[in-house]
UniProtKB/TrEMBL annotation:
<keyword id="KW-0378">Hydrolase</keyword>
<dbReference type="InterPro" id="IPR024079">
    <property type="entry name" value="MetalloPept_cat_dom_sf"/>
</dbReference>
<keyword id="KW-0479">Metal-binding</keyword>
<keyword id="KW-0482">Metalloprotease</keyword>
<keyword id="KW-0645">Protease</keyword>
<protein>
    <recommendedName>
        <fullName>Metalloendopeptidase</fullName>
        <ecNumber>3.4.24.-</ecNumber>
    </recommendedName>
</protein>
<dbReference type="InterPro" id="IPR006026">
    <property type="entry name" value="Peptidase_Metallo"/>
</dbReference>
<dbReference type="InterPro" id="IPR034035">
    <property type="entry name" value="Astacin-like_dom"/>
</dbReference>
<dbReference type="Pfam" id="PF01400">
    <property type="entry name" value="Astacin"/>
</dbReference>
<dbReference type="GO" id="GO:0008270">
    <property type="term" value="F:zinc ion binding"/>
</dbReference>
<keyword id="KW-0732">Signal</keyword>
<feature type="domain" description="Peptidase M12A">
    <location>
        <begin position="118"/>
        <end position="319"/>
    </location>
</feature>
<dbReference type="GO" id="GO:0004222">
    <property type="term" value="F:metalloendopeptidase activity"/>
</dbReference>
<feature type="binding site">
    <location>
        <position position="225"/>
    </location>
    <ligand>
        <name>Zn(2+)</name>
    </ligand>
</feature>
<feature type="binding site">
    <location>
        <position position="219"/>
    </location>
    <ligand>
        <name>Zn(2+)</name>
    </ligand>
</feature>
<dbReference type="GO" id="GO:0006508">
    <property type="term" value="P:proteolysis"/>
</dbReference>
<feature type="active site">
    <location>
        <position position="216"/>
    </location>
</feature>
Length: 320
């Protein structure tokens, strides 16, 4: 017990020492260690062994996984899928392609909220609530691909989302619809609930920072990228001449008839925002905030932003 208290005290001290210079990033507090120990300590309820030895001091593993975060390498998010890292079903792609693309000059002359849309509107692609109003997302973590330390990183990312939303990730038992997290090629996810098993790829090299894991989990919940916001030209410049020619489609604004920001504003702090050099062909920026104070903020992969949490809660009507 004394060792546990020392570890928790050290964790608290380090957490308080984090260089928080704004109130937009939601940094998890040290009590999350207690949550992970309590939640996954019952091996009968959760048959997946998170530790090689059940008698091992679990809090030491949890503390290490919490404190030692991989450096995000967002190039692994910039793949060949929709907007780089989102896998769409055929019907999703057909509907998106059937609508007039929204380019960087086009605007909607509508007084509604059509200018604030980037989260999927189709209710059929959302995860269901239980009788208590909690959104349940069953998951499987491929134990052949990840070690104990990796699994803990994934679980911490899940708990970060759970802490500020009505989402709960639960180990799959026999549910038909679930996410299967594996180490594939790059970092990518399906957009929203697909039905049956749907993959989230977290390549062990490059995709294991907490923010990157949160990013891909949020795609699975149904939200895409902030800079594709239909109103983005008020906030960022898209430098088209610096973008790889075949990747310019990844910067198209999304159709306001398919996606929504659910009443929230453009969020430079979002874990769902591209970093400044996304898909650059020449090492020069492709996305530049009009307000230069956000130049080093966009593309952060440290934690959920308060805006990210608000959008999830609004999308799933968590408190209604």
């Amino acid at each position: 017990m004394k060792v546990i208290l020392v570890i928790l005290h050290t964790l608290l001290s380090l957490t308080l020492a984090l260089p928080i210079d704004n109130d937009r990033i939601v940094y998890p507090d040290y009590k999350i260690i207690e949550e992970i120990v309590d939640r996954f300590g019952d091996y009968e309820r959760d048959p997946k062994s998170l530790f090689d030895d059940p008698n091992l001091l679990k809090s030491e593993n949890a503390t290490a996984a919490y404190l030692i975060d991989d450096e995000a390498d967002t190039k692994y998010e910039y793949g060949t899928f929709y907007q780089g890292d989102m896998i769409l079903k055929d019907d999703q792609m057909d509907i998106i392609n059937s609508l007039r693309p929204v380019n960087d000059q086009a605007e909607f002359n509508d007084d509604s909220d059509l200018g604030t849309r980037t989260g999927i509107l189709w209710a059929g692609y959302r995860w269901p609530k239980n009788s208590k109003g909690t959104v349940i997302v069953p998951y499987v973590i491929d134990s052949h691909d990840f070690n104990t330390f990796d699994e803990l990183k994934i679980l911490f990312a899940m708990l970060d989302i759970e802490k500020y939303t009505c989402i709960q990730f639960v180990p799959r038992s026999s549910e038909r619809n679930y996410v299967h997290i594996h180490s594939g090629v790059g970092c990518n996810s399906h957009l929203g609930r697909q039905g049956g098993r749907q993959l989230i790829s977290l390549q062990r090299k490059g995709c294991m920072s907490r923010g990157t894991i949160i990013h891909e989990l949020i795609h699975a919940l149904g939200y895409d990228h902030m800079q594709n916001h239909n109103d983005r030209d008020k906030y960022v410049y898209i430098l088209w001449d610096n973008i790889v020619e075949t990747q310019k489609n990844n910067f198209q604004k999304v159709s306001p008839y398919l996606f929504s920001n659910f009443g929230t504003q453009y969020d430079f702090y979002s874990v769902m925002h591209y970093e400044p050099y996304a898909f650059s062909k020449n090492g020069k920026p492709t996305v530049v905030p009009k307000d230069s104070k956000f130049n080093k903020i966009i593309g952060q992969r440290n934690a959920l932003s308060s805006g990210d949490a608000e959008r999830i809660n609004n999308m799933y009507k968590c408190y209604s």
